[in-house]
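Aim 2 progress update. The chain analyzed this quarter is reproduced below.
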Amino acid sequence: KRKMTHELYLPRCHRTYSCVHCRAHLAKHDELISKSFQGSHGRAYLFNSVVNVGCGPAEQRLLLTGLHSVADIFCESCKTTLGWKYEQAFETSQKYKEGKYIIEMSHMVKDNGWD
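Predicted C-alpha cells:
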C-alpha cells in the first residue's frame, strides 16, 4: 500500500466523520460498525476502515473485553491520537474486531448532510 502524502477527501455526497481538531476526513458513516464502544477517555465508535490515519507500533493491552494486540492511531494531518486499531484478539468472541478501528467521539465531528 503506497504512502499518501496528501490528505484524502471523501466524496461530498457521503456523511463523514472528521477530526475535530483539524477537520481532516477520518471515516465514512457507511464504515461505522458500532457506537457502543469505550475508548480510553469516553465513548468511541468502531469503524471498518478509516482515512488520513497513521498507525503506531502494536502492543498487547488488557481491555474490558480481554487481551488484545492494538496499535494507537493518530490523525495524519494534526498528529492527534484518535484511538486504536485492533491488530489481534486472543479470545474467539472478539475476533470480529481484528483489523478494525476505534475512534473516540471526543475527536470526531460530523460533516456533510447529516440533517
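The two ends are 35 Å apart (CA to CA). The mean pLDDT is 90. These observations will guide the mutagenesis experiments scheduled for the next reporting period.
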